């Protein structure tokens, strides 16, 4: 084990985000004028890899990009952040994944993702990488890859003795054996509702949903935005409140900041509550800044967040 803990293998999407600032997101048939547009590295997989690396994790990223300028930019950024990108495949003739992100003045966002090269990732390659390189560490996935990729990674993680962390965002249907491997399953309120079939809109209902999901997964985390996060495992359950922020600037990628931080703390051998505490602080830090990866904290920058600054 290195100083940063057990190795973290993040498997998932890498997108270039096209971010536009709007007063409010357009409704059906409506046109709105954006105040600005900028491009920024994104994708849930790459975001979580960068978030973990910035907090000292030993991180490798497994995914695909196209043979275009966007793909080259994403690879440069991953390497600059200290993420091992040797397992990122460049797909000839395919465009790099992209996301159109509309950020409202309130900080809330609406996102449309075009997967592109992300869907060229194969179960065979994921299985090979996990078996060869992830033994004893963490394997982290999200819902922005095809369900068969998630299933293959879960199987390979079990067989290699790796801890499987799944952020099921966006929600996709998965077999029960995949959910049973999750340690933890990380979802937000809407994703928890999609799995349980019951609305989740409060801390109390999140606790109830976590108890239900604990019957299907090894451990569970439900993120609640400004209210923090609820967790549950075999040793107990609880809620970690989020520190207050003066102003929410941009919620894009805040959930990925949470998952990356959680993975780092778990890789260091901490319990789930401690991991959720760091995740909440990382997510809180991110929402007060623009962008996804550009908003993520370095280790020392979370001290003030912990104090409620």
UniProtKB/TrEMBL annotation:
Q: Name one GO biological process term.
A: D-ribose catabolic process
Q: Where in the cell is it found?
A: Cytoplasm
Q: Which residues bind ATP?
A: 188, 223-228, 255-256
Assigned EC number: 2.7.1.15
Task: Pull one GO CC term from this UniProt entry.
Answer: cytosol
According to UniProt, the reaction catalysed is: D-ribose + ATP = D-ribose 5-phosphate + ADP + H(+)
Cofactors required: Mg(2+)
Q: In which pathway does it act?
A: Carbohydrate metabolism; D-ribose degradation; D-ribose 5-phosphate from beta-D-ribopyranose: step 2/2
The domain of life is Bacteria
- Write out the entry's keywords from A to Z: ATP-binding, Carbohydrate metabolism, Cytoplasm, Kinase, Magnesium, Metal-binding, Nucleotide-binding, Potassium, Transferase
The record ties this protein, via SUPFAM superfamilies, to: Ribokinase-like
Q: Does the keyword Metal-binding apply?
A: yes
Q: Would you identify the family this protein belongs to, as annotated?
A: Belongs to the carbohydrate kinase PfkB family. Ribokinase subfamily.
Q: How does it assemble?
A: Homodimer.
Q: What is this protein for, i.e. what is its function?
A: Catalyzes the phosphorylation of ribose at O-5 in a reaction requiring ATP and magnesium. The resulting D-ribose-5-phosphate can then be used either for sythesis of nucleotides, histidine, and tryptophan, or as a component of the pentose phosphate pathway.
Protein name per Swiss-Prot or TrEMBL: Ribokinase
Name the species this protein comes from.
Occultella aeris
